[in-house]
Amino acid sequence: MTLPLTRCLALAWVALIAAVAASTARAAEPLRLGWQTPWATQGQLVAVLQKTNIAQLVDLDLRYVGFAYGAPLNRAALAGQIDVLLTADQPAAALIDKGARFRIVGRMMVNRTCLYTHPASRITAIEQLQRARVLGPTGAAAERVALKLLADAKVDAKQLQWGDLDMAGQAALMRTEQGVWPGADALYGFDPLPADWQARGKIRMLGCGPVSAFVLASSDVIERRPETLERFLKAFSLAWAWYAAQPQQANAWFREISGLDVPDAALEEAAAVEPNKSAKRLADVSLDVSAKDEAAFAEAAEFLRGKGLIGASFAAPPFAMQPYRAVRQSLPQWQSFERRVAPR
Question: Is the Cβ–Cβ distance between 84 and 34 less than 8 Å?
């Protein structure tokens, strides 16, 4: 049976209206960004998003959900409370392994982690850490970097005494002004605190290494709201360009939001390892994942596998870079936004 033309047109019109309504509803749905409030460089980027008109420029309703560190951020993602999150390579691997259907959609930054000792210590080089007592945030990427620094210096990690001391505990230790650190010959941890302590003469730096950090998005956002994800990646690129051009203001906003009393010099040293920090314009900013970043992620996953914390392989490829590559291809159409970014 053939439907009358008018009825066919009416049905097509209804379908079109429904599709437009569904698309509008998806676009209007806020994007929940999970981030870590005391984590420098990442913190400046989120502060720029919060304190400027960037989200409005790209027509993005962004909600900020802050966490003290990576573990509760991962739990929120597993519970479906986060759409996009910013995290380091090891927490990213752990989250992807949990079947949370999160994928890496961009590179956030390179972060620095370090190995250090008391300035009055007899230890002045990593090679001298034989049979030493070494403390830090166990299981964090900083531990992996510390192990690599030790291996490169031909120090047998199995001969060391290891203990757990997170960054809050280390900060308390730094406030004691003791001549030595009770129970520790060396510590390991991640910026900005080591950079700050070094500037204040509270530590002797033995060595540092890079850690890759990423932007992750849920499969729901990738598959059902690709336009929203692309808007976020545009906003994040704009935030990097603004931060690179206005670091003192971004640092001040980060201190205000995080409550950390870290001077500009330490924050700038912590951020200096990231290439985007040297961007002169928006076109210089890149969130693309390089072969080096993929290797760092694979190294992080292998470290976790060695500790029995994740499975032998991921159920799906961890990277989904097509949304960002679409954003880069469309750069000529939206790079004029860079000149319109301003504090709110």
Answer: yes
